[in-house]
Amino acid sequence: MATIQVDKTPLEQPKHQQFALLPKIINGGIAGVIGVTCVFPLDLVKTRLQNQQVGPNGERMYKSMFDCFRKTYAAEGYFGMYRGSGVNILLITPEKAIKLTANDYFRHKLTTKDGKLPISSQMVAGGLAGAFQIVVTTPMELLKIQMQDAGRVAAAAKLAGKTVEKVSATQLASQLVKEKGIFGLYKGIGATGLRDVTFSVIYFPLFATLNDLGPRRKDGSGEAVFWCSFLAGLAAGSTAALAVNPFDVVKTRLQAIKKADGEKEFKGISDCITKTLKHEGPTAFFKGGLCRMIVIAPLFGIAQTVYYLGVAEGLLGVEKK
């Protein structure tokens, strides 16, 4: 009777895809620098509109986004539109790298064994990414806002017959650390977290959903074509930006250290919300909303395109995963 030989060699298990950290960090940094350079003047206008408070007789320095842009350019010139860009470009690399890399990492970890990632897990991954980024975002935004709003405060002081001393980002950072320690750079961290976590919970799942709807590349990678990633970034970024604009207004006002004469001080998130509602109404929470959408849409469109094209992988000579 013939015996049947059984092959006892263990079946080869499918290899889990490795999470390539370095290329993702570099891609995030490149994307952040390119995006900020392109949209920074609009971000400056957004900051000034959000910090502007309506006077007792309804007076205001800027009537609209275009009025703010025109007056800022007339008073401070082309380079005035980039005031505060140095600290932003310096810190946007780690900020974007943390945000995009953390989201990918948590998506990687939360993906089920059958390769599925439920929408709830996508939201958790996005929220965690937003929570991690505030370590860098808070001091970056704090310093950037002082630089961006300095022109508005100086113009208001000039109208009142006063002058405001110019302070660089380095001097301001040193002063805050000297007076309050390292935590002085984290003024408004609660509001920053509220904005960034909520933004990421909305943005990343929406981007992934929209990106999956588009055509795939012909190289067999399964990735979306670049224009699809760009448009998905535009749509998801603008939607999430408008949704969290009230939190951004609160954060911006809390982080503004120097106020124009007659402008109110805020003790915290609830105090800022209460006073803003009382004196300016609910529409105040959407100040700079259009401007923020115009800023965030291309910023994340560019970021996701660079990220998904795998620029860093090309520079490093490694395979995109």
UniProtKB/TrEMBL annotation:
In the bilayer, the protein is annotated as: Multi-pass membrane protein
Residue ranges that the Swiss-Prot or TrEMBL entry lists as coiled coil: none
Q: Which domain of life is it from?
A: Eukaryota
Its localization reads: Mitochondrion inner membrane
Please provide, alphabetically and separated by semicolons, the GO molecular function terms listed in this UniProt record.
L-aspartate transmembrane transporter activity; L-glutamate transmembrane transporter activity; symporter activity
Where are Solcar repeat segments found? 19-109, 117-213, 224-313
**Which purpose does this protein serve, as stated in its record?**
Responsible for the transport of glutamate from the cytosol into the mitochondrial matrix with the concomitant import of a proton (symport system).
Q: Which reaction does it catalyse?
A: L-glutamate(in) + H(+)(in) = L-glutamate(out) + H(+)(out)
Presence of the UniProt keyword Aminoacyl-tRNA synthetase in the record: no
List UniProt keywords, sorted A-Z. Membrane, Mitochondrion, Mitochondrion inner membrane, Phosphoprotein, Repeat, Symport, Transmembrane, Transmembrane helix, Transport
Where is this protein chiefly located?
mitochondrion
Question: Would I find Membrane among this entry's keywords?
Answer: yes
**GO biological process: any one?**
malate-aspartate shuttle
The protein's name: Mitochondrial glutamate carrier 2
In the record, the note on similarity to other proteins reads:
Belongs to the mitochondrial carrier (TC 2.A.29) family.
Gene3D superfamilies attached here? Answer: Mitochondrial carrier domain (1.50.40.10)
What residues form the membrane-spanning segments? 25-45, 224-244, 293-316
Instruction: Show the GO cellular component annotation of the record.
Output: mitochondrial inner membrane
